Amino acid sequence: MRQPETIGEVVETGLCIGCGLCEAIAPDRWTMRMTPEGRLRPASIASDPMADAEILAACPGATVEADTSTAPFQDKVWGGYTSMTRAWAKDPDTRFRAATGGVLTALGMWLLNSGRAAFILHCAADPDAPMRSRWVISDHAEQVYRRAGSRYGPSDTLAGLEKALSRGQRFAIIAKPCDANAIRARAKTDPRLDDLLIAVLVMVCGGASDLGKSRAVLEEYDLKEKDVTLFRYRGFGNPGPTRIETRDGRAFEKTYLDMWADESGWRIQTRCKLCPDAIGEASDLAAADIWPGGAPSGEDAGFNGVICRTAKGQALMDAAIADGALASDKALGPRDFDDFQPHQVNKKHAIAARLRGLSKAGAPVYHHAGLRIDVLDAADEREEDGAEQRVRSGRFAENMPDPTETKHG
Ligand SMILES: Cc1cc2nc3c(=O)[nH]c(=O)nc-3n(C[C@H](O)[C@H](O)[C@H](O)COP(=O)(O)OP(=O)(O)OC[C@H]3O[C@@H](n4cnc5c(N)ncnc54)[C@H](O)[C@@H]3O)c2cc1C
Ligand code: SF4
Ligand code: SF4
Known about the structure:
It is a single chain. By secondary structure, the chain is an alpha/beta fold. It has one domain (66-383). 31% of the residues lie in helices and 22% in strands. It contains 16 helices and 17 strands. The strands form five sheets. Strands 8-7-9-10-14-15-6-16 form an eight-stranded mixed sheet, with helices on both faces. A three-stranded antiparallel sheet has the order 11-12-13. The radius of gyration is 20 Å and the shape is globular. The model has no long low-confidence stretch (mean pLDDT 97). The protein binds flavin-adenine dinucleotide and iron/sulfur cluster (2 copies). Residues 7, 10-11, 16-22, 42, 55, 59-61 line the site of one iron/sulfur cluster.
């Protein structure tokens, strides 16, 4: 299987997830733009393919690695871990406001309040265009609290990485699993990451929709994006409703199940369908939903499944519990997570065949290591043929964005 050789090839073959790392590493050559389809992608300002080798070495469209092999517990599907626990934010307001049980927000707040980190790099609704997300640096716990919740559209958190590193202070990142893969790869050549980045916290991720999913919700209510003052995908309960507010004082709500009932309208980005690590194997700690069977049967108080991946993640979790930032009541195991996340189990078994399909159709494939993709290969020919056909029919093909477009497209 051949790897993509340029950033352009990553984007044009559907392997880009729009993480923003290109812009952070080379802002003089790459700038993140929203494509007409509603995907954040790097637009070329100046061409220097030789220099882009540095980006490709960490780009999650070109390489995906994790190494959990030294963790004390090992599972073929879920990888290495130090513990799996049911937990939630001890502060009831944080727990209510956050996407699930507020573990990621409570950890971010506690890292700041305890002086372990000077700031958190993560993402939040864009105040000027609340349906969209943008990377943010939170210096105060109150900011992390206000920015709780899952953003189901495009997010380019790593576009803020250079700004974060250039502050020369200890910090943590809250992001997606693919962002964690990129961070780990980047740390091989940027020693500032080992010195300054004290924790990589991620959510387990079923895939990021393009903005078309959110635009469809607006269309349903006959709303224009310019009229929207709030677009909250979930939270304020678990899972909580999707809520839209408008300048003229109207509010619209959809339940989580209504929002995600029709899978054909999810508009999940291609890279997500090919994702070899949506479970945070490159993170220190991953937080998930834990609904039996994989879907909520109603609202509840908010419970996260937390997978500590590293000794560092475990130490943070233990200290946050000891300090009263988090509560936890029971240990979980990999077979519990199979039940909570059947889509992740299916994906782990399907990825090898999908990648073969890509390769058969002549498309490039990212390099991967440490993710057990070949061991878990279910050798499903339908998956392989499906991926091959999608490449041949052009369904995975994308165009490079125009750098003269605004970020809002
Ligand atoms: C696109 C997407 C798909 C998901 N799919 C699954 C799934 O399949 N299974 C599952 O168990 N859980 C999934 N989740 C995760 C789930 O919604 C919760 O985020 C997770 O359980 C953590 O809950 P929490 O209460 O600790 O998060 P919170 O305390 O609300 O914290 C969320 C944090 O994540 C950051 N964040 C939110 N959205 C993004 C984003 N798009 N990119 C980068 N950072 C972001 C925020 O800045 C915030 O700091 C998904 C989340 C997203 C964004
Ligand atoms: S995945 Fe990230 S690093 Fe790779 S091309 Fe896309 S934005 Fe750039
Ligand atoms: S499914 Fe994978 S590629 Fe897609 S956003 Fe989630 S972690 Fe990133």
